[in-house]
Design brief:
Shape: globular
Number of strands: 13
Largest sheet: 4 strands, mixed
CATH topology of the largest domain: paralog of FGE (formylglycine-generating enzyme)
Helix content: 25-40%
CATH architecture of the largest domain: Alpha-Beta Complex
Structural class: alpha+beta
Strand content: 5-15%
Low-confidence stretches: 150-166, 316-320
Mean pLDDT: 89
Amino acid sequence: MSDLPQLLTEALTETRERTLRLVAGLDAATLETVYSTLLSPLVWDLAHIACFEDLWISRAAGVPALAPELFTIYDAIETPRSRRGELELLGTEESFAHMAAVRARTEALIGQVARDRSDLIELVICHEQQHNETMLQLLALARLPNPFHQTHAPDSLAGGSGGAAPTRGALELVDFAGGEVTIGAGPERGFVYDNERPAHVRALAPFRLALTPATNADWLEFMDAGGYRRDELWSPEGWRWCQEEQIERPLHWTEDGRLWRLGELVDIDPEVPVMHISWFEADAFATFHGLRLPSEYEWELAATLDPASGLQRPMPWGSEPVSRAWANLDQVSGGPLAPASFDGATRGGLRSMIGDVWEWTSSWFEGYPGFAAYPYHEYSAPFFGERYRVLRGGSWATRPRVASTTFRNWDLPQRRQIFAGVRLAGDA
């Protein structure tokens, strides 16, 4: 076996081990329960991961799929999350068995597929890793146990900052000159999602971007100043949502000043980035400070710019998986940490650009000029238009293989189950 099939096999195996660890100890009733129409029952995710792998590996190898009759019920477009609890899904044991059968067939074909279509193996790996994060969203929403609690319990999750130096960088803004900048991923990057391509040039006006995401302390000040009661801070759509849903604090915060984190009720750490806020809340917070949300292009430039030379250059996370020493990624921390907890800062000094919390931007999710769907139309194109807002940067729950400065996440502006926060921006 050559190096590439071996490396891909190892990545597939490590990814599957993480998937199974997320649900270890959960019984069939828990896995099959619909806790929210915003997220799938966990058993759907498990079988969907297997069906996705079955589809693309069989297609790449030119062999029949193992279970094509399951493709429709586990198709994310054909069966949206709000309907998945109504379907006749595979049971827990059947789902695990299907995952194992598909993986055994993949391992038998890995040499051939790696030679002809290694990009599709990368797609399968990244797809499963992305579902790991959505599964963690469900674990958080349902207040199910932290799967990493026994081996990873950072001090910050118990109410401290892990020894990191306190910072209030959410209101310290760095100037960027803008200009003609390159956005997106070029062919040298290997596998990336279609919405990250093609690389293209955009003209950006000068702007400013905060050193860190907004923290819980910043959010408490917003709340104390009546942020959730002042309609002048909100967009019309945001204020309507806030009133109809009776929103008074971030998701998982309690009225007595604590928060739920993966099944544990903990004190609010003022130093860590605020999490589980919607785009509407992020936008109101920016207005409260007389600032705005960055565009996704401003965000990407700030994440890659070398201020000494004025040139865009990849950071350590530009083309290789991000080291956990550089950023709070890979799920094991159980939540965001103080921005000074990791070495990963941009050349301009901005911290937590990658990891900790996804950062809402002002941008609608659209295809780049020259966009071409790949390897299938349904991954990005159905979501284009003025409905979904772009998030950048990854979160503590994002796997390193997925995180990069060009990766684009997206969601509806009212959604709060994602591990999202906010970094402020302004005009220079």
